[in-house]
């Protein structure tokens, strides 16, 4: 699972850089981290962590 998460993050981060996404200055999380969290949660929709939100 960790390999999938890291690969997903790297893909999304690289894509956002190519697309010209500029990071906001005062955020604690970047856009790739937020999108990765959502994507990984959606792939594990049967887990209790994602279905109880």
List keywords for this structure.
53 residues, globular
Helix content: 55-70%
Average pLDDT, all residues: 83
What integer value in Å does the Rg equal?
12 Å
For the biggest sheet, the summary is: none
How many runs of DSSP E, i.e. beta strands?
0
Structural class: mainly alpha
| Beta-strand proportion | under 5%
> Could you state the order of secondary-structure elements as H and E?
HHH
Number of helical segments with 4 or more residues: 3
- Indicate the overall shape: globular
Number of domains: 1
Note poorly predicted spans: none
Termini distance?
A: 21 Å
What does the model show?
- This protein has helices at 2-18, 31-43, 48-51.
- It has 53 residues and is mainly alpha-helical.
- It has one domain (2-51).
- The longest helix has 17 residues, at 2-18.
- The radius of gyration is 12 Å and the shape is globular.
- It starts with a helix and ends with a helix.
């Amino acid at each position: 699972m960790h390999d999938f998460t890291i690969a997903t993050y790297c893909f999304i981060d690289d894509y956002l850089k190519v697309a010209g996404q500029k990071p906001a200055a005062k955020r604690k999380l970047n856009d790739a981290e937020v999108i990765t969290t959502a994507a990984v949660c959606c792939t594990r929709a049967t887990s209790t962590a994602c279905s109880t939100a």
